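[job 4471] stage=fold_predict status=RUNNING
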Amino acid sequence: MIREIVEDVARATTPEAMARKFHNTLAEMIAGVAGRHTDLPVALSGGCFQNRLLTELTVARLESAGVKVYWHQRIPPNDGGIALGQVVAAARQLRFEESARERKCV
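[job 4471] inference complete, writing structure tokens
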């Protein structure tokens, strides 16, 4: 991929065309790895999947290969999602501790 980018720069390829090739290549790489295990679902997460183009290209390739794919649709895939996960984990821990205290009092 890096070699292609260097060659595209030397050929004066437009930044838009280079960006499209880059995103297409990433989506193909992800689908290629997932394609080795089509019986397993794939979850796309992390800050790179805030990139709408990358997410859409990857989801389309995975679905067309018959891979069950999950991606963020209501919760952001970056720090906002991590923060929500931390809140859920803390709430669960509090419920567990309260339940333990109640069992001791009975």
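[job 4471] summary: The CA atoms of residues 17 and 61 lie 20 Å apart.
[job 4471] exit 0
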